[in-house]
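Quick one from the shared queue. A colleague (R.T.) flagged UvrABC system protein A as missing a structural entry in our internal table.

Convert sequence to structure tokens.
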Amino acid sequence: MSSAKRTDRRTAAAHPADGHDMIRVHGARENNLKDVSIEIPKRRLTVFTGVSGSGKSSLVFNTIAAESQRLINETYSAFVQGFMPTLARPEVDVLDGLTTAIIVDQQRMGADPRSTVGTATDANAMLRILFSRLGDPHIGPPSAYSFNTASVRASGAITVERGNKKAVKATYERTGGMCTNCEGRGKVSDIDLTQLYDDSKSLAEGAFTIPGWKSDSQWTVQVYAQSGFVDPDKPIREYTEKELRDFLYGEPVKVKVNGVNLTYEGLIPKIQKSFLSKDKEAMQPHIRAFVERAVTFTTCPECDGTRLSEGARSSRIGKISIADACAMEIRDLAEWVRTLDEPSVAPLLTALRDTLDSFVEIGLGYLSLDRPAGTLSGGEAQRVKMIRHLGSSLTDTTYVFDEPTIGLHPHDIQRMNDLLLRLRDKGNTVLVVEHKPEAIAIADHVVDLGPGAGTAGGTVCFEGTVEDLRSAGTVTGRHLDDRAALKETVREPTGALEIRGANTHNLQDVDVDIPLGVLCVVTGVAGSGKSSLIHGSVPAGADVIAVDQSPIKGSRRSNPATYTGLLDPIRKAFAKANGVKPALFSANSEGACPTCNGAGVIYTDLAMMAGVASPCEDCEGKRFQPSVLEYRFGGRDISEVLAMSVAQAEEFFGTGEARTPAAHKILQRLADVGLGYLTLGQPLTTLSGGERQRLKLATHMGEKGGVYVLDEPTTGLHLADVEQLLGLLDRLVDAGKSVIVIEHHQAVMAHADWIIDLGPGAGHDGGRIVFEGTPADLVADRSTLTGEHLAAYVGA
């Protein structure tokens, strides 16, 4: 009796463990955060919003998720930690109530040529096992169906350590599925010799057209001219067969040039080692342009681009080979797997079906498993990463998403919302950084940061429900119900860009005229063929400037001033005013502080513990030698100029004694794209994805081109900034440019002069033009998914 009463009392009292239902953050100061203190409810969906640069990523990714990952890494042994990235503790006083954080970000998947959608998930591995069990003829274990595994054969003597040691003959064999011709890449590279030299000239006449190989005094050129293998005074087209073979493919040999021993090597292997083995993105622009001209990639003739050996392609289940299965759209592959009924592999079939169904459910059914991972957009890559978490048994986990609606048509956003709610309903904490009103609407809790960007941001302006946000008076609250109106008048085109018979990827012989001299928006559901039509069919000539979603390569030393070329006129202005060399005003050259080499901070490696970055004591983080800081221009030294925001610098270089028109012009373009809050010396590594894209746009705006192609320029833009972007697009068109925008945002569609809508669906259900005309006609017509959503958006 008494024990029963005791149990009742225990149940009535709150359990101590139930008190930990909040993630508490106190005194967060990462990047631009100003002592932020908030409490985030667990097992709820919390959306973080605010203008670009307000501190959302600094709070969610660089503070909460970073500390969670650091604490998990510390649970491993020191030996294991030695192989893991070292993470410094974020600038925060207290972080309490953290759970395991899984980050599903917008980082594109590695562009390794052997990485595909199938290998990035478990789908390929399961298919290989399936074919190794059911394939006819049987050719071997799962590795026999892998294009990343080469066949190996070996034979020789081995010593058996048993009783009397005895050498016995042994053979070893492993069957792989790799095509030997393309080594599992599906493509073979070919070098266009006409881009390497002018065969009508001799070496003495400067036949080479390779960047940096023009000069006769250049050592590399001298090696070829004085090697003795070819006649330097004879035009290359007159070489004998042996001379041409030695010139192009000669083996490395030592030769004497001007009394110095050097290595002679054929031109083709020399080019492959000096240019093709390097990361193309890290090359200087003129070198990269040469590589893109000189190297052509063609489909491998032996495997027809499947990457697989003849044996792997010959083994079939029914009439389907593994190459056929990987080339199918995933939704078709899922239907085919459902037709298989084999009790011996029943658990495998169930797991494979679940994985493929997840692709379809998440809106990626139009992809195929052989699609190279590097060709996925940021939004597609993020959703592919989500697939492994949908069926996960983990609960009480924190999932962190970076704008999961990027690249999604309004039709697909509802599906993404359902997935986020499903993760929450399994008992997980879901943190989402987001700008789209449709995604903010499903939040249980909203945290609005701001009020501005950069130094004007970094504080919490609002915490609460979506309904309370609408009446909160913050920038986000005021703009949450913004709806762009349709234009009353549209511009008349000045010409047209004709595309005929476009069949890249899923396009079905599309004929379309893209109007020039106007703002033209290309839209359609994800996977309908928008990028294939524009990037695959619009000729990338001197008159076309494409600003796509590819990331900027930036080190800790790169900043907006160096990336945009702004630092050159600033350095020259300082040098001229003080009568010294421009190199003194570069933190990467002669003016750098010798202690920190111009980095401004000293990095201390603490072995298995996280490294520490501390400001350089000699230059106090200013990056320059003290003698350089004595030189002034307009009353400021170079470190003070780099500490200015774009808006301050625009005013500084626009008038008075510091007036520098070349610098002012670049700063105006940065302000035009909404980056007025960035400081000139801020490292590129601290910029968000949206900021980097707009930095790229500002740089390209200085180029002379008649046609601008923009790929989702609203990525990472707050509702309040979209209006500024529309103003920028208008200014470009009014200046006589043609602007083609691939976009899902309804405000951009409503503002367009002409809309081209692709669809009606994705993959093989898309690839056709379903509408061409003005936004008003699209709304009135309502014959497409885009038309329906745009009509609802403008309230028609």
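The radius of gyration is 30 Å.
The longest helix spans residues 56-73.
Added to the table.
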